[in-house]
Amino acid sequence: MGLMELTTTSDHASIVSINLFVALLCGCIVIGHLLEDNRWMNESITALIIGLCTGVVILLLSKGRSSHLLVFSEDLFFIYLLPPIIFNAGFQVKKKQFFRNFITIMLFGAVGTLVSWAIISLGAIQIFSRMDFGDFDIGDYLAIGAIFAATDSVCTLQVLHQDETPLLYSLVFGEGVVNDATSVVLFNAIQSFDMSKIDPKIALHFIGNFLYLFFTSTVLGVIAGLLCAYIIKKLYFGRHSTDREVALMMLMAYLSYMLAELLDLSGILTVFFCGIVMSHYTWHNVTESSRITTKHTFATLSFVAETFIFLYVGMDALDIEKWRFISDSPGTSVAVSSILLSLVLLGRAAFVFPLSFLSNLAKKSTSEKISFKQQVIIWWAGLIRGAVSMALAYNKFTSLGHTNLRGNAIMITSTITLVLFSTVVFGLLTKPLIRLLLPPLKHATSAASSDPNSPNSLGVPLISHSQDSDSFLSGHDIPRPSSIRMLLTTPTYTVHRLWRRFDDRFMRPVFGGRGFVPVVPGSPTEGNLS
Amino acid sequence: MGLMELTTTSDHASIVSINLFVALLCGCIVIGHLLEDNRWMNESITALIIGLCTGVVILLLSKGRSSHLLVFSEDLFFIYLLPPIIFNAGFQVKKKQFFRNFITIMLFGAVGTLVSWAIISLGAIQIFSRMDFGDFDIGDYLAIGAIFAATDSVCTLQVLHQDETPLLYSLVFGEGVVNDATSVVLFNAIQSFDMSKIDPKIALHFIGNFLYLFFTSTVLGVIAGLLCAYIIKKLYFGRHSTDREVALMMLMAYLSYMLAELLDLSGILTVFFCGIVMSHYTWHNVTESSRITTKHTFATLSFVAETFIFLYVGMDALDIEKWRFISDSPGTSVAVSSILLSLVLLGRAAFVFPLSFLSNLAKKSTSEKISFKQQVIIWWAGLIRGAVSMALAYNKFTSLGHTNLRGNAIMITSTITLVLFSTVVFGLLTKPLIRLLLPPLKHATSAASSDPNSPNSLGVPLISHSQDSDSFLSGHDIPRPSSIRMLLTTPTYTVHRLWRRFDDRFMRPVFGGRGFVPVVPGSPTEGNLS
User: Fold this and answer.
1) Is B3's CB within 8 Å of A33's CB?
2) What are the protein's UniProt keywords (chains A, B) (predicted)?
């Protein structure tokens, strides 16, 4: 209405910062596109650098005073930016690849995070307590371990690509998602238990908590997705409305995330599984134009949110307030950052290689095993610490009003240093590392085996659905051994086969899905552009 | 990350309210769909009623205490909800219809708002000053006039439909958009001039201000749209990326609105013209899947924002704090509401009928004239006062901390009463009124003459563009009189013809647009689903 000139000056400041952020986002998109073919850069690093430059300009313009423009808000991050990214990842994930490696992903996400957390915490206790820069108790050290053991799923999406390295992507990204549930349990455990006395009972309690949280979060996401599929199938049958379908899918997905947060579950796990279920059922119940719209809208929202996060982290890094406290002892901050980086490197190495070895033992064919080169990339790509670590560090070290303590200020600046360093250095080097270790020829063949069941391969389902599902079922049905024997020999495939049979017989007739929704009269592309 | 349980309780309250709102939005969409064929209801009234019911439930649950869940935020409304609605209206508007009635729309929006404002202000001065319920000065009465003279474009979208009554839609909605610029000028004038002494100099100053504001706001929107078209045409030529294109269009449109607000211009005018330019140029420069995505995404966002606004207004209406002050004198509030309603009815009648008469004088063919029945609908449909009036009333009567004054409390409750009454009563009766006055047969013929140039008719441009533009040009070129003589006889068509020639010769080669962007290799539907 143009009447905002009547309102107070704080509104004016927020209008200025919205203008700045939106303009910078446009800049990031354009520059990111121009640099697309560059072998080093990716969009996240571009956004980070643009954010840093803008921070410098603002700092110079405000003559060294801190600006309110730069305050990092956890709410903004966890409530608005993270859900679309994780949902889109679930929506576009290659489900076959993901579930084939499910056990390895669970190992990495649960056991791996614990190993990493233990090593970082122990290292922090041993080293930081001797450095005397702050007054931390054992709980603080364990929290530091949890903060830096958290893999950043958002960064993973930037450096690994589903089409180029599907196995690595599903392992590292899936680990990041499962990791979230582990982190929630860890944080709760640190708060409620006396972790200095670890006995088997606490460990059992911990495992029970993790399994409970993992199960409930997943079920909540699955229920939200199925409910959405059911509503659209029942209500919109025969008279589709693209706007309502798209709105309902977006809102239900968001609702699942917020409900999980409300119930103290893992929102990331919930919304990820909601995305998987929606792409398997709901997406096939809507019109062709709704399919195109949802696919691209979710991807666009995720893309904008990712760019925004990196821009934000870059701009926030230069907030002068944080650096003022450590200006008398820059050496300490550098030392703390280096120690943390070494602990992160060590902690990740300590679980990636042993767990990959274990996972390889269970697999028979050589093509399914994780090669040493792939292990190195898994180790490397998961080293990036991003906005998630930053938000957790802020939560831990700036809440309760004790930002002004020297120890807390050093932890915040060290986190920023670590985030900037790892994003830029590991981010820049991942692309060349993959090219070095895994020759491009190999990617091309693995990319060809894309899952026709996912929104990634738009249009294909309409043509090839019956052929594909039939070939999968019949191909495995010909020898027809007893299901139990097969479960023992090739477990993943049998689970998949049983699931497909169950899906076709019970789930799809109720919730819709590929081939189970009658075609709407009229052309699929033009029919219902309401 | 699921770590929000660590944060403070205020965050918990915001999570609860987000959950509630999102769940209610889902409910509104589903119920709205079920009631779609109902001849009385529309989506806005459904949302309003659901909001009211939820308000009652919350009131009962909190045992009469006011809840923070219910506070109406102007920022939320003007910064996040209004821009997508107005942008989408511009993006989907039938441009030919809109520009054909441009002069009438300007008359209604500028002169009409002034007439309405003068009548409501004078009536308020005459009546309210004798009622002695508050201590208002002349500026307050003029502000009351401005608040209730503002047509609510959002409500118009709900009761009039572009496809059914294109002339009425373009007149009433266009009036609402132009009205915004008038309101800004009016509010500024009330604040800066001594309006009690009106002399010709002030009137000239006022007209000058309006023209300046109208011109700069429009130009800003046009520049934003053209810039976006140019960037996409230059950068993405040959290698499209749907996600980037969609993101860029969304962000540039939003940027235009926020820039207008920053520069104290009319954001609504800016974003409306940005939408028109984007649908004319930018939309034709992107891939087929981007076109489908943008069309539906903008419509969906607008739809969700509209539903949210009505839900919000409904829930907010029952906030007990506001009603406490007038509990001793409910009669006054009812009287004030009734007087305001009568003034609004009178003020609108005072310009719709005379200005329609003037507009009809300038038109030669009977089919282009506004019939008396249509005038009645224009008068009726523009009577609805909605969230815009509410936001303005809040801005005027709750800012500066003097909410507790009795006069202000009465004005707020009267505004709420007027908004609820007009939305429900006029909203419910508009559909039957249109059916009564304009038989459906007539709509069908006018709906058939849809503009193939707009995103409303997806797919058509690719097939019929050359034929359409040729026929238009050649059809009028055959007699070929001098352009100036033609300008005097049939002004609108000549302006259109000159514009088309200018557009084809200078604008489209630079900014792209229908038929001026080479077809991307590969199938248009499947080619570039990045």
Assistant:
1) no
2) Antiport, Ion transport, Membrane, Potassium, Potassium transport, Sodium, Sodium transport, Transmembrane, Transmembrane helix, Transport
Question: To the nearest whole number, what is the mean pLDDT of chain B?
Answer: 76
Give me the count of residues in chain A: 530
What are the DSSP calls for B164-196, one per residue? T-HHHHHHHHHHHHHHHHHHHHHHHHHHHS-TT
* CB-CB neighbours of A200 under 10 Å: 7
CA atoms within 13 A on the CB side of B108: 29
User: Is the Cα dihedral A184, A188, A189, A190 positive or negative?
Assistant: positive
Cβ separation of B529 and A82 shorter than 8 Å?
A: no
Give the A:B interface size as CB pairs under 8 Å. Answer: 236
* pLDDT above 50: residue A183: yes
Contacts of A296 in chain B (CB under 8 A): 242-243, 246, 289-290, 293, 297
Does the pLDDT at position B399 exceed 70? no
CATH class of A74-303+319-379+391-416: mainly alpha
Cα(A71)–Cα(A61) distance, rounded to whole angstroms? 17
Closest Cα in chain B, distance from residue A361 (Å): 32
CA nearest to B224, candidates B253, B184, B190: B253
Question: Three-class SS of residue B88?
Answer: helix
Is there a contact between B19 and A297 if contact means CB atoms under 8 Å apart?
A: no
- CB contacts of B289 in chain A (<8 Å) are 292, 296, 458
User: Rounded to a whole number, what is the distance in Å from the CA of B331 to chain A's nearest CA?
Assistant: 32
The distance of A286 to chain B (nearest Cα, Å) reads 13
Nearest of B257, B260, B253 to residue B282 by alpha carbon: B253
Q: How many CA atoms lie within 13 A of B118 on its CB side?
A: 12
How is chain A split into domains, by residue range?
A: 74-303+319-379+391-416
Higher pLDDT, B30 or B154: B30
Of A493, A373, A345, give the one whose Cα is nearest residue A442: A373
CA nearest neighbour of A30 among A41, A46, A49, A16: A46
DSSP, residue by residue, B341-410? HHHHHHHHHHHHHHHHHHHHHH--SGGGS--HHHHHHHHHHTT---HHHHHHHHHHHHGGG-TTSHHHHH
CB atoms within 10 A of CB A436: 11
B478: tokens are 């055959």
Burial class (CB in 10 A: 0-12, 13-18, 19+), A40: exposed
